[in-house]
Amino acid sequence: MEEESLRRRGDTSHRGFLLRAEDLSFRIDSDTGSVRIVEGISLTLNAGEILGLLGPNGCGKTSLLRILAGVVQPSDGAVIRGGPDVSLGMVSQHVHSNLLPWLTGVDNVALPCLVKGRNARRSRSEAVESLNALGLSHLSDRYPHQLSGGQQQLLALARWLANPPSVLLIDEGWSMLDFVQRERAYGYLRSFRAHGQRSVCLVSHNIGELAGVADRALVMSGPPAKIAFEIDLTKRSTLADRVDALWECARRVFAIPLSGCS
């Protein structure tokens, strides 16, 4: 693979960053010993890009994202925001934790705006616009328990469309979406990335998913979670090339034999 598009981890300094992780480590200590979950991870989320994190189930991707979001504090290292106005939003892989069960779809989407003290009528109007943009207007008056898992995931995305943060962190956010829903979500992410000083960090173990939407990808090994390779996917002209680049990294990290390629 070309050196400019694939390299071992080295200098990750960038200009215009929104979020930066510096030598993050996370471990769980108990009477029986210490379990390392994340070890020595440094990464940068730049304004105007979608960063993909690729790795197998259980390697520590979710723990890393929770540290970036500030939900969990690292054992070592630091997460630095690019400025005082940098805000964060997160979509969890656990759909039940994204929405409040006693609120309707439109009220769930409007919630962040209301928490910030915006006018209730305006907040609801913006929530309706977000639902319309994602083709979810028919879900406005339904409660989470009346929705499929995919519909709940899209509602969580609509929430951040109504109240866009600087950085949107998504943990396996499309696992329950069908093809049409997924393409609609990808379009939203590209639009989100293109407007102003915003970025997306998308965690997935799905190579095709990241190849279709990410600008840059970090391939992780673990546990404990470590970053082995970085790929600039913008240097790949076709989707097939992007898939090949990600697959080659996965193969090299996890020592998958060439006969396993399809």
User: Radius of gyration, rounded?
Assistant: 19 Å
Query: In DSSP terms, counting alpha (H) and pi (I) runs of 4 or more, how many helices?
Result: 7
Count of separate structural domains: 2
CATH topology of the largest domain: Rossmann fold
Strand segment tally: 10
Largest sheet geometry: 7 strands, mixed
Low-confidence stretches: 1-15
Model description:
This protein has seven helices and ten strands. With 262 residues, the chain is of the alpha/beta class. A hairpin with a 4-residue loop joins strand 9 and strand 10. The protein starts with 5 loop residues before the first strand and ends in an 8-residue tail after the last helix. It is globular. The N terminus is likely disordered. It folds into two domains: 152 residues, Rossmann fold (3-Layer(aba) Sandwich); 77 residues, no CATH class. Helix 2 runs parallel beside helix 4, helix 3 packs across helix 4 and helix 6 crosses helix 7. The chain has a seven-stranded mixed β-sheet, sandwiched between helices. Strands 3-2-5 form a three-stranded antiparallel β-sheet. Helix content is 33%, strand content 27%.
